[in-house]
Design brief:
The structure is a homotrimer.
Chain A: H1 25-34, H2 44-53, E1 60-65, E2 69-70, E3 73-74, E4 78-87, E5 93-96, E6 111-115, H3 117-120, E7 124-125, E8 147-148, H4 151-156, E9 162-171, E10 174-182, E11 189-195, H5 202-220, E12 227-233, H6 237-245, E13 253-259, E14 269-271, H7 279-290, E15 296-298, H8 307-310, E16 319-323, H9 345-364, E17 367-370, H10 395-406, E18 408-412, H11 413-420, H12 424-436, E19 440-442
Parallel strand pairs in A: 7-8, 11-12, 11-13, 13-16, 14-15
Antiparallel strand pairs in A: 1-10, 2-3, 4-5, 4-9, 6-9, 10-12, 14-16, 17-18, 17-19
Helix pairs in contact in A: 1-5, 1-9, 5-9, 7-9, 10-11, 10-12
C-alpha cells in the first residue's frame, strides 16, 4: 500500500561500494555526491537522493499522496523548483539558485515580478552574525516566497529595478521516503532513522544518510537477532507520516536511534530517549564510556530531530539520537558553511564504529544464570584461570568473575558490563567462554 | 470555643496600607511599629501586636485559657510585666526594662529586694562573644527571674547595695494567637505560620509577621483555589496549642510553610518539610532555582521554628520553613542587635515576591493530558508556532513543547517546569495557551 | 562431624593476654609470634597457628578430609614441607627455605635433582619491579614446583651445576580451620572471618588474625544480642569448605565482615557487600564517617578475599570486607617486604576500635516508636532540656530531637544516626535516656 521498490537507476550494474572500507573516505564521497541535490520535505530532490542510495542498499522507496491525514497533520503539496534568481536592472543574476540552492526559501511559491529594493526587502533573509554565509530558511506551512543571501551581499544591494523569478511548483503530488528492512531471527525491531529533507547541507544531514547507509551494508552481511528498520525520511512530516501509516506496527520497536550531524570534528553526543533509561540509552552510554574518548550524554528534551515524534507521549518509543556536535552548537549549522568540507571522514568512521558496537551490545544483551552459584566455581577446571596464584587478576579474569557474580537472572550482560566498567570485547569473549563451559545458561 | 474576633481598635476607620506597594518600605514600617512591644508566649504584648495587625488584615484573635492540656504540654500561666530595673546604691537605674525589654529574662517572676553583687550575679546573663549587645533569654517552664545586659556593662558593675525590682505577674490567664482564613474554591488548605512571641527582636520575627501580613493582603484580593490559613502564634506552645485544638482539621492541610527571619540582607533559604519531597518543597526549590539569584535549600532537621511541631512524626504535615539567613547563622540573632535597622526593605520585598510566586505555582499546579499525543500536534494550526522554519526554538516554544511532551497524566505542571528549567511565567502562559487551544485537558 | 576442640598445647596454664590492652602492641606481638610459621591452605603451618591462638581464645579446630566434594571444588591433598634449597656447585645453599619460607612456591611437589641454570630457570619466580624482594607464588591446583627469589639474586645466578631439593609431601590428609562461636541472646549470627593460609606475610593476613582474636576476647566479655561466629580459615578453599558444610546454617547470618590487611599505616577501607545496602554496610559507613579520620568506601567487586565466596550469587550474604590499604595497593603486598615491621600497632588498634564500635551499632540497632508523636513532647518534664531558653541546641539535645522525630517505626536508630550525622556515643546515650523516660518504645 505505501511502498514500492524501484530499480536502481543506472547504477545497478556496478558493485556497491563498501562504505566502511576506508576510514570514512567512502562515506565522505557519498556526502559529496548527494550534496548538490535540492532536497525538501517533498519533491524530486528526495527522489534523486533515494535513487542514488539504491546503488548502495536495496531501499524501498515509498510515496504517500498529498492531502492524506496523518495524526494532527496533512501530507503537504509537493514542491519542486527548476530555477530562481534576482536580476538587477542590468540584467545580471545577483542572487542565483543555480549557484546555491540555499538561496531560495524552501517551499517558496512561484513569482515573476519587477520590484524596488523596498518591495523586495521583506522577502530577503540573512544572518548578520555570520555575514559571509547564506542561511537556510523554509516556509512549509505558510505560502510565501523568499530568498536567503549573505548579510554582506544584502547590505550592499543598491536601489534598483529588480526582476524576481522563482520557477517553482506547489501542487498535489507525493511525500517520498525510503525504508529498508533487514530481517533478523526475531520480529522485534531496531529502528534507525535519518532525515533526507535538507538541501545542500552536509553535516545536517548527509552525514546521517551516509552513516545509515553504511550501517545497512554492514548489518546486511550479518546474522541478526533483531530485525532492523532503517528510515530515510523527510524530517517531522516524514516521521509523522511513517508513524501514522505504521501505527499498528510500532509496538515491535524495542530499540532505536536517530542519526544526525554525525560527521563533524566534535566528539559523539547521545541524547537519551524520553524514557531516559531504555536499554538503547544504557547501551550507548556504556559504549561511549568504554570508548576512552570524550563524549557527552544529553537528557531528553522535546526539541531536536525525529526523536521528537518517536518520543511523543502517545508513542514513547525507546529511541534516542546520536550526534557529534548537536544542532545549533556549531556556527555552520543551517548555513552554507555546512558543506562537505565541514564533514570529516574520520568523524563518519568513528560514528559508524560506535553504532556497530552499540548494535553488537544490543544483539548480545541477555540475562544469564550462573549454573554454579554457591561460592565461585573452580575456573581452573574449565581452563579459565591462571594456574600460578598470588598475582592480580587480568581484565579478562575480572570479566569472568563479574559475569559469574551478577548472572543471577536479574542482571543483563549490559548491566554487568557497565558495573564492571570493562570493554565490550572482553565481556563478550568472557560470556562466550562461560557459555561454552556451561557455567552460564540463558535465564530468559 | 477557641477563637473570638475582636474589632479593630482605633484603626478601623483608616484604610489599610498595601504592604507590598513600595518595595518593602511599608513592611519595614510595620516592623518598626511593632518593635517596641514586649511580646512573650502569652500576655498583653501579643494582644497589642495582633491588635495592631487588625489595621491591615481581619484577623481572628483567639484566647486559650491557662491550664488547658495540649498534647504533652499545658497552656502556661499568663505573664505580664510593667516595669523592671536594677538600681545602684545611688538610686540610679543601671539596668532598665524601659530602656530595652530584652533586659528582663522572659517569664521572670516578681521580685523586689536589696542584694549584693554576689547575690545578684547568678541572675545576670550576658554574651562575652558580643560584649556590646544584650542577649535574649527566657525561662518559661522553670520559675526564676533574671536580667540580661551587655557583657561590657556586666564586667563594669561595681560592688554595691543593689535594689532589684521586677514588677511582673504570672497568673492564670490566656494564651493568645491570631488566625486568618481566606476561603478558596477548595476546602484543602495552605498553612502559613509565623511566631509572635519574641519581644524587641526584628528579623526574628517581626519580619515574618510583616511578610505574612502582606501575603494575606495580596491573597485576599485574589480568586483562590486553596483555602489559606495564616497563623500568628507564639512559638512552640502556640503551635502545639493550635494543633491540639485543630487536630481533626489537620488532614485538610496540603501545603504550608513557616516564615521566619525573612528580612535580613542574606539570600533566601528554604528548609524542606520532613517529607522532603512534598509539593511545597518542590515548588520552593523550583521558584528559588528560577529566581536567578543565590539561594540555599536545607534538608529537614528537627530543630528550628514551628515546622518542628508541624513535622513531628504524628502530624508529618507538608510544611517547610522559609528564611533568609537562618537562626543562629547571623551574629545578631537573639540579641539587641536584631533591631529594625538589621531588617532591609528589599529583603522583605524579595521574600514576599518569592512567596507569591510559590503560591501561584501551587495554585496552578495540576496534571494535564495532551489531547494530540501521537507525534507532535501541528502548532502552526493553533497559532502557536513561527511560520519561518530553520531557526532555534524560543523559550516560549520550548515551554509549549515540554508541556505537550510530558503532559501524560502522570507529570504535574511543576514537574514539567522543573524538568524544562524555564521560568514560571512562561510555563503558565504556555499552559494557558495550550488549554485555550484544547491541546491540553485536565487529567484529574 | 566437622570440628574437634583441641586442648591448648603448652600455654593453657598461662592467663591469656588481653590483646586490646596497650594500643595494639599486644596484637603486634601476636603477629610477630606467628610470622615464622609456614602456613598454606592445608598442613601443619595452619595447625601450629591455630594452636598458638588457643592461648588467647577457645577456638574449635576443625579438620576436613582431602577428597571431600565441596560445591564445585574438592578438598585438596595436604601439603607439608620440611626443607628446600638450591645448592650451587660449591655445595652452598644459594636459595634456602630455612632463610625465608616465601622461597618455595606454595604446594611445590617434592624434587631432588641436579640441573643446569637453563633447566632450573622456568621454575624460578622474581619481581623485576621490586628487585630486592622475594615474591609470593602458589600452585595449588597444578602439580609443579618452583622457587621464588629476589630479582637481583636471580639475575646474578651464574651458570652452574645446581642441586635442587624440595623435601615436601602432597598426600591425602586434612584441611584445617578454626571456628569460635560466642552465643548471644539471639541465634541470629554475625560472621567475622579471616584467612590463615599465607606463610610469612604479616599484613596479609597476620593482621587480620590478630584483630579477629582481639575482637573475640572483647566480645567474650560482653552480653551479646547476636551470636558471633569467628572463622580462621584458609582463603578460598577454606571458605568454600566451611560454606558447603554449613549450608543449612547460612540463613542465620544477618551481618558479617572479612578482616584482611588491617595493620598497615593507611586509612581504613570498607568494601561493601554484594547487596550494597546491607545493615552492616550502613553501619561501617556511619562509623567511618563519624571517626573524623580519612577512610574509603569501595563498591562491591567479585575479586578480593573470602567475601568473594560469601557474596557469590547463590549465598549473597550481607558480608563486607574491612581493610586498611587494600591488597595490591601497597607495593609490599605478596612479597617478603610484608613483614612485621610493615604492620603498625596503632593501625591494629584503630581497626579493633572501629570494629568494636561497628559491632556496638549493630547490637543496638532497632526500630523504636515515639510515644508522644503529636508535636514534640515537653522534654523539660523528663529532665531532658535546659531550662534557660534562647540558646542553640547542644549535640545531645539534637540527638534527642532526631530520635523523637524519626522514631516512627520505620527508621532504625542507625538510619537516624546517619541522618543526624552525630557520633554513636551521643545517639546511644540519647536512645537510652528516651527509653528510660518511656518516650521511646521498641517497634519490633
Amino acid at each position: 500500500m505505501h511502498g514500492t521498490t524501484r530499480g536502481k537507476a543506472g547504477t545497478s550494474a556496478a558493485p556497491a561500494a563498501d562504505l566502511s572500507a576506508d576510514h570514512g573516505e567512502a562515506m565522505h564521497r557519498l556526502v559529496t555526491e548527494l550534496y548538490p541535490l535540492c532536497r525538501s520535505i517533498t519533491g524530486d530532490g528526495v527522489r534523486q537522493t533515494l535513487a542514488a542510495l539504491l546503488a548502495y542498499i536495496p531501499l524501498n522507496v515509498c510515496e504517500v499522496p498529498s492531502g492524506m491525514e496523518v495524526f494532527d497533520w496533512t501530507v503537504p503539496q509537493e514542491w519542486n523548483i527548476r530555477d530562481a534568481y534576482i536580476k538587477n536592472g542590468a540584467g545580471e543574476r545577483v542572487v542565483d539558485f543555480r549557484a546555491h540552492n540555499l538561496h531560495v526559501v524552501g517551499y517558496s511559491t512561484p513569482i515573476n515580478a519587477r520590484m524596488t529594493l523596498a518591495e523586495l526587502r521583506p522577502h530577503l533573509f540573512s544572518d548578520p552574525a555570520h555575514p559571509d554565509w547564506i542561511p537556510y530558511r523554509t516556509s512549509y506551512y505558510k505560502e510565501t516566497w523568499g530568498f536567503c543571501l549573505s548579510h554582506r551581499q544584502l547590505e550592499a544591494l543598491p536601489e534598483d529595478d529588480y526582476q524576481v523569478v522563482i520557477d517553482s511548483s506547489l501542487e498535489p503530488g507525493h511525500l517520498t521516503y525510503g525504508e529498508l528492512v533487514l530481517r533478523g531471527s526475531s520480529t522485534d525491531e531496531v529502528l534507525i532513522s535519518c532525515h533526507v529533507c535538507h538541501p545542500s547541507l552536509a553535516n545536517d544531514n548527509l552525514s546521517g544518510i551516509a552513516v545509515a547507509t553504511a550501517l545497512a551494508q554492514q548489518l546486511a552481511a550479518r546474522e541478526l537477532r533483531y530485525t532492523y528498520r532503517l528510515l530515510f525520511i523527510p524530517g517531522t512530516i516524514g516521521a509523522i507520516t511513517w508513524a501514522a501509516l505504521r501505527q499498528a506496527h510500532l509496538g515491535k520497536i524495542k530499540h532505536g536511534f536517530v542519526l544526525t550531524c554525525v560527521g563533524d570534528g566534535g566528539h559523539p553526543t547521545y541524547k537519551v530517549s524520553r524514557r531516559g533509561n531504555a536499554e538503547i540509552d544504557q547501551a550507548w552510554r556504556y559504549v561511549l564510556q568504554q570508548s576512552g574518548a570524550a563524549f557527552e550524554i544529553l537528557p531528553f528534551s522535546p526539541f531536536g530531530y525525529d526523536e521528537r515524534q518517536f518520543c511523543s507521549p502517545g508513542l514513547n518509543l525507546p529511541v534516542g539520537c546520536l550526534m557529534r556536535t548537536p544542532h545549533g552548537k556549531f556556527p555552520e549549522y543551517h548555513t552554507s558553511a555546512d558543506n562537505p568540507s565541514f564533514v570529516r571522514p574520520e568523524g563518519l568512521h568513528d560514528t559508524l564504529q560506535l553504532a556497530l558496537t552499540t548494535i553488537d551490545v544490543i544483539e548480545n544483551n541477555r540475562r544469564y544464570r550462573n549454573q554454579k552459584p554457591m561460592c565461585e566455581p573452580r575456573l581452573g577446571k574449565y581452563g579459565l584461570y591462571s594456574s600460578i596464584g598470588g598475582q592480580s587478576a587480568s581484565d579478562y579474569q575480572m570479566a569472568l568473575l563479574w559475569l559469574l557474580n551478577m548472572s543471577d537472572g536479574d542482571h543483563t550482560v549490559l548491566d554487568i558490563a557497565e558495573r564492571a566498567a570493562l570493554p565490550w570485547d572482553l565481556i563478550k569473549q568472557a560470556t562466550q567462554a562461560l557459555l561454552a563451559a556451561e557455567l552460564l545458561k540463558a535465564a530468559d
